[in-house]
Backbone:
């Protein structure tokens, strides 16, 4: 069982470049999430998708866009990368309504120079 | 602004000692979860507590949810080196499925 997979695992971008982070889950979960993790700040929600076809902003959405391609896949796009977006990005999914226990992917470590 | 405050931020103890990590908030949560994260990996769910006053045990780990559902604690008995990691608490303040995470407590257990 793969659970939640993310690609790529590492990425280095120059300021102004764009890229898409891919996420897929095989647990038939309705909800999917993108977080960023920075030292001392825990996990901050960027965007989430409560179900296929819907997306909504989280705490730190500026500079990002998302696409819920189907029930399995949820991608995060950086249109014009900035050094402030250097971070570790995690995708998560959740299936149970009411409790929302989340299952995380292994993360993408992004550096913007 | 962090809704959930974790303390301490860092804890270093020797194998065999006990430790407690706290997660506090001024907000009420419908449920609260604890995760452990190891270097280079994503967080892994340890437990979910949903009822005020609830106590759950997972081997040497004991989790408690406050009566008012605003705080929680994680107690580890006789810590082992394998308990080393970043412990994160997360709460669901509403019914929309979003979690608020604390900043985490880094626990280091040395032999």
Residues:
């Amino acid at each position: 069982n793969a659970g939640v997979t993310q690609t790529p695992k590492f990425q280095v971008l120059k300021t102004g470049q764009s890229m898409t982070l891919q996420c897929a889950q095989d647990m038939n979960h309705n909800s999917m999430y993108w977080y960023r993790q920075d030292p001392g700040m825990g996990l901050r929600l960027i965007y989430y998708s409560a179900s296929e076809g819907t997306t909504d902003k989280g705490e730190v959405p500026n500079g990002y866009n998302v696409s819920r391609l189907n029930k399995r896949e949820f991608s995060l796009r950086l249109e014009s990368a900035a050094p402030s977006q250097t971070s570790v990005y995690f995708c998560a999914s959740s299936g149970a309504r009411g409790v929302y226990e989340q299952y995380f992917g292994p993360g993408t470590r992004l550096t913007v120079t | 602004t962090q809704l959930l405050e974790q303390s301490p931020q860092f804890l270093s103890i020797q194998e065999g000692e006990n430790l407690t990590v706290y997660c506090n908030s001024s907000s009420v949560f419908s449920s609260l979860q604890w995760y452990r994260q190891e270097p280079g990996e994503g967080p892994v769910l340890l437990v979910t507590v949903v009822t005020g006053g609830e106590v759950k045990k997972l081997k040497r780990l004991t989790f408690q949810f406050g009566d008012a559902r605003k705080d929680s604690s994680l107690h580890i008995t006789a810590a082992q080196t394998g308990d080393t990691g970043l412990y994160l608490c997360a709460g669901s303040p509403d019914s929309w499925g979003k979690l608020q995470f604390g900043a985490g407590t880094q626990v280091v257990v040395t032999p």
About this structure: Residues 52 and 67 of chain B are 4 Å apart (CA to CA). The mean pLDDT of chain B is 92. Chain B is about 0% helix and 50% strand. The radius of gyration of chain B is 13 Å.
